[in-house]
Structures are given as structure tokens and as C-alpha cells.
């Protein structure tokens, strides 16, 4: 029963991933990707990682909604109303991907996997929390700083006109160079 | 449940994602391919934790991969926005400034 559910989720995950690159509509592609992610998250939930599985589901729902917005912003054909090919080097990529899958699958079945070391904790979420706050505090801090750096970097990259555009490289202009005046006395 | 079943699904996700990343002309679709690849890695990490090394350290790999996925998406969209503002480019074939 468990194996059947696992296989069904695996087919859904991989099928959703394939459909992402098959359907014309970008909205459909986004939701196919979301279905794939949720199937993987449920598989992770089946391993007992309740907290991480739930986080992945919530994160992916938000992420795919944001991705749908970006699709509409940047794709020339977001609704797929005009069938068009947006692929390049399909044959080479299929060959590389196929060879990679064959190699990985062969490795999976030929590898002599080691025996399980240790027992699973009764509450993996508590165990993860204790690890994050004890032995892996440095890892957690590094991840936190990296995420903060990402916030700063993304704002810098995405900002159309920053303070250097408005006040010059030395930030010493007497008045901001704005396309429209603002403030008191405009 | 068996380890191999999880890993085959993870390998398939990684391969499909690689195919998408290599073939897509749209930057947003390329990012979808990268996300699928990271998705496969995440599943494999969870499977390794469950079947081989159920110590809490194994969960840290999943946390790190989830963080990498969030960073990839944020930086990807910010880069797309920056390139589009500067050059009006939204296709990978047009972004060839660093080509040798």
C-alpha cells in the first residue's frame, strides 16, 4: 500500500515536471510545477519529516504564485494563446539528460548502500530544532546571513533608480535628480 | 518503502530539470528547470536521512537545500529584472554579453 502510494506520488512528481516543458500555457506550467513540488513534499512527509514537508508545501505555493506573476511580466506568450517553440538544442539536451538519468539509475541499483546507522528520533522536528540551536548553530547563522545578503542583493538588483542615480556617485548632489518633483514647494 | 524508489524519482526529477534548463529560451522557464533539479536533490537528501543516516544532521542537508532553492529563485528573478531593465532582454539567447 505504502509502495503504491509512493509510486503514484513519484509518477505525479515526474509527470508534473515533464508537463512543465510540454504545455503551452505558462499558467498551466506553473501549476504543473506546483503539483510536482507538492508530490515531492508529500513523499518527504512520508519519511517522517513532518515539519520540513509542511514548510516545503507552504513555500512552494507562495513561490509558484510569485512565479506566475513573473511569467505574466516577462513572458511574451504567458497564456499560450499563440503556439510557439521556445526551445533550443532539444536533441543535445535530451541526450545529455537521458544519459545522466541512465547513469544515475545504474548507480542507484549497483551501489552497495551501507546499513542504516542509528535510530530515527521519535520526534524529528524536536531533534531538528535542538540540532539547529545546539550543534549546528553556526550553520543556522550562516544560512540566516546568506538569506539576509540575498534580500539586500535582490533589492539592489531590482531597484530601477537607487540613491546613486538620484544624488550622484558621491551622494553629494544638492538636489535629487528625479523625473518628477516632490515634497514641499514642488 | 525502499531507498531505490525514492532515488529513481529524484534522478528523474533532476534529469527532467536539466533538460528544461538546457533547452528553454525563456529565463523564467530556465529557472523552473533549476527548481526541478533542486527538488530532486531535496528528495534524495530526505531519503538518505530516512534510510541510511537518521541522525538530526541529515535533516540539516534538507534545510540547506530548501534555503538554496529560495535563494536561487530570489536571485534569479532579481537578475531577470536587472537584465530586462538594462537591455530589455527576457530570452537566454539574447543575453550573450559574457560569451567568449
UniProtKB/TrEMBL annotation, chain A:
Gene3D superfamilies: NADH-ubiquinone/plastoquinone oxidoreductase chain 6, subunit NuoJ. The keyword rRNA-binding does not apply. Its main location: membrane. One of its GO terms (cellular component) is plasma membrane. The keyword Transferase does not apply. It catalyses: a quinone + NADH + 5 H(+)(in) = a quinol + NAD(+) + 4 H(+)(out). GO terms for molecular function: NADH dehydrogenase (ubiquinone) activity; quinone binding. It is an enzyme of class 7 (translocase). Its EC number is 7.1.1.-. It is a multi-pass membrane protein. InterPro entries: NADH_UbQ/plastoQ_OxRdtase_su6, Nuo/plastoQ_OxRdtase_6_NuoJ. It comes from the Bacteria. NDH-1 shuttles electrons from NADH, via FMN and iron-sulfur (Fe-S) centers, to quinones in the respiratory chain. Couples the redox reaction to proton translocation (for every two electrons transferred, four hydrogen ions are translocated across the cytoplasmic membrane), and thus conserves the redox energy in a proton gradient. This is NADH-quinone oxidoreductase subunit J. The gene is nuoJ3.
UniProtKB/TrEMBL annotation, chain B:
GO terms for biological process: ATP synthesis coupled electron transport. Signal peptide: none annotated. It is an enzyme of class 7 (translocase). Its main location: membrane. The keyword Ubl conjugation does not apply. The chain crosses the membrane at residues 6-22, 34-52, 58-84. Gene3D superfamilies: 1.10.287.3510. It comes from the Bacteria. The keyword Transmembrane applies. It is a multi-pass membrane protein. One of its GO terms (molecular function) is quinone binding. Keywords: Cell membrane, Membrane, NAD, Quinone, Translocase, Transmembrane, Transmembrane helix, Transport. One of its GO terms (cellular component) is plasma membrane. Its EC number is 7.1.1.-. Pfam families: Oxidored_q2 (PF00420). It is found in: Cell membrane; Membrane. NDH-1 is composed of 14 different subunits. Subunits NuoA, H, J, K, L, M, N constitute the membrane sector of the complex. Belongs to the complex I subunit 4L family. This is NADH-quinone oxidoreductase subunit K.
Amino acid at each position: 500500500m505504502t509502495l503504491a502510494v509512493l509510486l503514484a506520488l513519484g509518477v505525479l512528481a515526474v509527470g508534473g515536471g515533464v508537463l512543465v516543458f510540454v504545455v503551452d500555457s505558462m499558467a498551466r506550467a506553473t501549476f504543473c510545477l506546483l503539483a510536482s513540488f507538492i508530490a515531492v513534499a508529500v513523499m518527504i512527509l512520508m519519511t517522517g519529516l513532518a515539519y520540513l514537508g509542511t514548510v516545503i508545501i507552504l513555500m512552494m505555493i507562495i513561490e509558484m504564485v510569485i512565479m506566475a506573476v513573473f511569467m505574466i511580466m516577462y513572458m511574451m506568450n504567458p497564456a499560450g494563446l499563440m503556439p510557439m517553440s521556445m526551445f533550443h538544442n532539444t536533441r543535445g539536451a535530451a541526450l545529455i539528460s537521458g544519459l545522466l538519468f541512465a547513469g544515475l539509475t545504474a548507480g542507484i541499483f549497483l551501489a552497495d548502500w551501507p546499513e542504516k546507522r542509528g535510530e530515527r528520533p521519535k520526534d524529528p522536528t524536536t531533534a531538528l530544532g535542538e540540532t539547529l540551536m545546539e550543534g549546528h548553530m553556526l550553520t543556522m547563522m550562516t544560512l540566516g546571513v546568506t538569506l539576509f545578503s540575498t534580500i539586500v542583493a535582490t533589492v539592489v538588483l531590482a531597484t530601477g533608480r537607487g540613491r546613486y542615480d538620484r544624488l550622484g556617485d558621491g551622494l553629494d548632489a544638492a538636489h535629487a535628480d528625479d523625473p518628477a518633483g516632490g515634497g514641499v514647494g514642488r | 518503502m525502499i531507498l531505490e524508489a525514492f532515488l529513481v524519482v529524484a534522478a528523474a526529477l533532476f534529469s527532467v530539470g536539466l533538460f528544461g534548463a538546457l533547452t528553454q529560451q525563456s529565463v523564467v522557464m530556465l529557472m523552473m528547470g533549476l527548481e526541478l533539479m533542486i527538488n530532486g536533490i531535496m528528495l534524495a537528501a530526505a531519503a538518505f536521512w530516512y534510510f541510511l543516516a537518521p541522525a538530526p544532521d541529515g535533516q540539516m542537508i534538507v534545510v540547506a537545500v530548501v534555503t538554496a532553492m529560495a535563494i536561487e529563485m530570489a536571485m534569479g528573478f532579481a537578475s531577470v529584472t536587472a537584465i530586462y531593465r538594462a537591455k530589455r532582454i527576457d530570452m537566454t539567447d539574447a543575453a550573450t554579453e559574457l560569451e567568449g
